Structure formats: C-alpha cells, structure tokens
Amino acid sequence: MLSIDNKINELVDETTSNIYDIERLIYTGRYQFIDKDFNLLSKYSLVMLYSLWEGFIQDLFRMYLEEINTKISLIYELNERFMLWQIEEKFKQFNEYPEKEKGKINFQLNLKDFITQTNHELNTNINCQNNLGFEILNKILVTFNIDIIPEHLFPYKHPNRTVKKFLEDLLFHRNNQAHGNNQ
Predict the structure, then answer these.
(1) Which residue, 62, 63, 48, 64, is CA-closest to 15?
(2) Cβ neighbours of 28 (radius 10 Å)
(3) 59 Cβ neighbours under 8 A, 6+ residues apart
(4) pTM to 2 decimals?
(5) How many other C-beta atoms lie within 10 A of the C-beta of residue 7?
(6) With 165 labelled, which of 1, 109, 125, 137 sits at a CA distance of 20 to 30 A?
(7) For 107-142, what is each residue's pLDDT tens digit?
(8) Closest C-alpha to 54, from 167, 176, 172
C-alpha cells in the first residue's frame, strides 16, 4: 500500500500531466484543427482546467481524511474547528433546523447516536461550493488547521497580480462558459 506522501505525489503528477496535455493539445500546433474546432477547444479549456483544479483539491483532502481515519477513532481527538465541520457536514440540521416535530426527534436521536459512538468514520467529501476560489480554498485550509495561502504568494506578472485575482478570473471565465454566457 502506498504511503500518503506517495499518493499525493501521484495525484500532483497526474494533475500536472493532464494540465500540460490540455495545453499541448490545444496550443502547441501538434494537431491541425480547423479554426472552428480550435476556437471551441480553446474557449472551453478553462472549464476543463477548472475541473482539474477542483478535482485535485477534493482528491487531496479526501486522501488526507482517509489517512486521518486510519489514525483516530474518536472525532473528539480533532481540533474544534475541524470537529465542528465534520458534525455540520453530517448533520445539516445545524444549518437549517427542522420545523416539524418528527424531524426534530430524528435529529436528536441521530445526534445522540453520533455522540455516544466509540468509533467515528470521518466524512471524506469536500464541499467546494461549486466555486473553488481563493476565499473557499482558505476556508477549507483553516478548517483543516493548515496555513492559509496569502494573496501574494510570489511575484506575479500581468494580467493576474495575485493568487486571489488569478482564481477570481479562472472562476469568472469558467462560470461564464459553464453557464452559457459567451463573454
């Protein structure tokens, strides 16, 4: 079985390779596309790149959570912010409390069962809210007790001066393409 480090390295290599493959496919002239096909692939490449980006983050944190699952048995061994996230993911009622008595009773019974469990399996789903931008990424990092990514990670050149601006632009163009806007 591969170590977590090896799994992460494989994920990074695979994602990087896929990104370069998209770039080579569209922009190196390796393939002779007619203009219409080139424009189509070029236009929707941002949707593909965004999909790789969000998938990478989800897979990375899923691996991390699976590793944590092998090391702990009680959710109470985790830091409070992370524990809260896990509980809110399991019990959506914390965000929208049931109105009907039956729903309230079921919530209370499920919560009681959860609290008295002696072995907790962590939820490995990462909700990127369909728009994994700078703020959501940093919110995930804070939840996992990982240092946030600063806006100015390293010197950038035009057109995107910061990581935040780069991700905002990626999301803007991805959303325009994914939702049928032609800007």
Answers:
(1) 48
(2) 9
(3) 11
(4) 0.83
(5) 17
(6) 125
(7) 999 988 888 888 888 889 998 887 899 999 999 999
(8) 167
d(C-alpha 176, C-alpha 70), whole Å: 41
Buried b / exposed e along 93-113 (16+ C-beta atoms within 10 A) = beeeeeeeeeeeeebeeeeee
Distance of CA 129 to the CA centre of its chain: 8
Are 2 and 10 in contact by the 8 Å Cβ rule? The answer is yes
- Sole residue written with tokens 């990104």: 19
With contact defined as beta carbons under 8 Å apart, do 126 and 140 qualify?
Answer: yes
Burial class (CB in 10 A: 0-12, 13-18, 19+), 153: exposed
76-116 confidence digits (pLDDT tens): 788 888 888 888 888 888 888 888 999 989 999 998 888 88
